[in-house]
C-alpha cells in the first residue's frame, strides 16, 4: 500500500497491492462534496466499481490504521484465497455466501440486503441475479419476491445517492460499465482462441445467447419445475405478465415455499454463478473467488463421486494458477466449468438423494443384522 497526497477532503489513498485499481480513501461524512464519480481515480486507473466498494474499503482503511498496518491487511485478505493480492472479489463473494446462508434460513430481507451489498461491491454478482429472483419467487411468492427485489434496488440507490445527485450518468457508466473492452493478455478462460476471435462481436453475441439459453434450460427443467412438483414454469408466464400470482391458492403457495430447502437455495444460486462464469466474456484470476468453493459442492451434489470431485478440483486449481494463461490452462478452465454445469443439470432431485440415503441405510442395517446372526 502507498500513501498519496490528494486535494482535501481526499487526503489519503490506498494502493491495493498488485491489484488492478487504486482505491482512494473517501470519508463518508463528506461524500456529498464529490461532484463527479468519474474524477475518482488512482495510479492504476479510474474507479470502476459501485458505491459499496468505496464504503467497504473505507472501513478497511480505518481498520488498518489508515493503510499503515500492511500485515493486518494481508491477514484479512488471507482469510479468503488471495493471501497477497487484495482484490475486492473476496468481499463480493463473502456477501454472496452470506446471502445464500440467509436465504437458507428464510431470513429473506437480510439475504436481500446482503446480496445487494455484494452487488454494490462488484457487478459480478449480477450473474446470480436470475437465481436470486427464482429463489425469492418460490420462497415468498410473486408479491413478496417483487418487494424484496425492489429492496435490492433501493439499497443500490441509497448507497449511490452522494454520486447520483451530482453526476448520475458518470456514476452508472463507471460503476456498471457493461461495454468494457476486455484485454486479451488478462483472459484466463479464452486464451486458446486467437486474439481477433476473442475481441470479435460474434463471440460476444454467441456467449450471451448461450448464457441466456442455458439459464432458461435450468429455470424451465430444474429450478422451478422441481419446486412446483413438475409444473411447467412457461405456463406461469401469462399470470406473471399480468403481475398475478400463478399459484391459485394460499395452500399451493405455501407448499411451493416448503420445497425451498437449503439444498435448493445453494444449488440454484451456485449453478447460476457457474453458468455465468462459463459464458463470461473474459475471466480474470480474481474471479476464482466465486468458483473455488462452489465446484466441489456442485460436483458432489451431482452424484457424490469422490474421485470426480478431486479430479476436477485439482485440474481447476492447476489451471487457475498458471500465469500467464496458456492454451492448455484456458482449455482446462472452460472444460471444468462445462463439466460442472453439466453435472449440476444432471444432478438428482433432493428427494431422490434422500431416497438413496434411505436405501443405503437400510442395506447397512441389514448387513449389520446378518453379521450378528
The whole-number mean of residue pLDDT values reads 82
Query: How much strand?
Result: under 5%
- Give the fraction of residues assigned to helices: 55-70%
Shape: globular
| Helix/strand class | mainly alpha
Radius of gyration: 23 Å
Give the ordered list of helices and strands: EEEEHHHHHHHHHHHHHH
Q: Main beta sheet: strand number and arrangement?
A: 2 strands, antiparallel
Give the low-confidence spans: 1-33, 369-373
Beginning-to-end CA distance, first to last residue = 70 Å
| Strand line-up of the largest beta sheet | 1-2
Would you report the number of β strands?
4
**Helix count from the secondary structure assignment:** 14
Biased composition (Polar residues): 361-373
Protein name: Dol-P-Man:Man(5)GlcNAc(2)-PP-Dol alpha-1,3-mannosyltransferase
GO cellular component, one term: endoplasmic reticulum membrane
Main location: endoplasmic reticulum
Description:
- Residues 353-373 are annotated as: Disordered.
- GO terms for molecular function: dol-P-Man:Man(5)GlcNAc(2)-PP-Dol alpha-1,3-mannosyltransferase activity.
- It is built from 14 helices and 4 strands.
- Strand 3 (41-42) and strand 4 form a beta hairpin.
- A two-stranded antiparallel sheet has the order 1-2. A two-stranded antiparallel ribbon has the order 3-4.
- The chain has a domain at 127-354.
- It is globular.
- Residues 1-33 and 369-373 have low confidence and may be disordered.
- It has helices at residues 51-63, 70-78, 89-104, 108-121, 129-175, 195-198, 201-227, 237-241, 250-258, 262-278, 294-303, 306-320, 327-346, 350-372; strands spanning 13-15, 22-24, 41-42, 45-46.
- The termini are far apart.
- With 373 residues, the protein is mainly alpha-helical.
Amino acid at each position: 500500500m502507498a500513501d498519496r497526497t490528494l486535494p482535501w477532503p481526499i487526503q489519503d489513498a490506498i494502493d491495493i497491492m498488485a491489484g488492478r485499481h487504486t482505491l482512494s480513501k473517501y470519508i463518508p461524512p463528506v461524500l456529498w462534496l464529490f461532484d463527479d464519480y468519474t474524477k475518482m481515480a488512482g495510479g492504476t486507473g479510474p474507479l470502476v466499481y459501485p458505491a459499496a466498494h468505496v464504503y467497504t474499503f473505507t472501513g478497511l482503511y480505518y481498520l488498518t490504521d489508515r493503510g499503515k498496518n500492511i500485515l493486518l491487511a494481508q491477514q484479512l485478505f488471507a482469510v479468503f484465497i488471495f493471501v497477497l493480492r487484495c482484490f475486492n472479489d473476496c468481499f463480493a463473494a463473502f456477501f454472496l455466501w452470506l446471502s445464500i446462508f440467509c436465504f437458507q434460513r428464510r431470513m429473506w430481507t437480510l439475504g436481500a440486503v446482503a446480496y445487494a451489498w455484494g452487488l454494490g461491491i462488484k457487478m459480478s454478482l449480477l450473474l446470480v441475479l436470475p437465481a436470486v429472483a427464482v429463489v425469492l419467487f418460490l420462497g415468498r411468492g410473486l408479491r413478496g419476491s417483487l418487494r424484496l427485489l425492489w429492496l435490492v434496488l433501493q439499497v443500490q440507490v441509497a448507497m449511490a445517492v452522494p454520486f447520483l445527485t451530482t453526476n448520475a450518468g458518470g456514476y452508472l457508466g463507471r460503476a456498471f460499465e457493461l461495454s468494457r473492452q476486455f484485454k486479451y493478455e488478462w483472459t484466463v478462460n479464452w486464451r486458446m482462441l486467437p486474439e481477433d476471435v476473442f475481441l470479435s462481436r460474434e463471440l460476444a453475441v454467441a456467449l450471451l445467447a448461450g448464457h441466456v439459453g442455458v439459464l432458461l434450460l435450468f429455470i424451465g427443467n430444474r429450478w422451478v419445475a422441481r419446486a412446483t412438483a413438475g409444473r411447467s414454469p412457461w405456463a406461469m408466464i401469462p399470470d406473471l405478465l399480468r403481475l398475478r400470482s400463478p399459484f391459485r391458492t394460499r395452500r399451493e403457495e405455501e407448499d411451493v415455499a416448503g420445497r425451498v430447502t437449503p439444498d435448493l437455495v445453494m444449488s440454484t444460486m451456485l449453478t447460476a454463478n457457474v453458468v455465468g462464469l462459463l459464458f463470461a466474456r473474459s475471466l480474470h484470476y480474481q474471479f476464482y473467488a466465486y468458483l473455488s468453493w462452489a465446484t466441489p459442492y456442485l460436483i458432489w451434489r451431482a452424484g457424490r463421486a469422490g474421485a470426480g470431485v478431486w479430479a476436477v478440483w485439482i485440474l481447476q486449481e492447476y489451471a487457475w494458477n498458471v500465469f500467464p494463461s496458456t492454451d492448455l490452462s484456458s482449455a482446462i478452465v472452460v472444460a471444468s466449468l462445462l463439466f460442472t454445469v453439466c453435472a449440476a443439470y444432471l444432478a438428482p432431485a433432493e428427494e431422490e438423494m434422500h431416497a438413496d440415503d434411505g436405501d443405503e441405510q437400510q442395506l447397512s442395517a441389514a448387513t449389520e443384522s446378518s453379521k450378528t446372526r
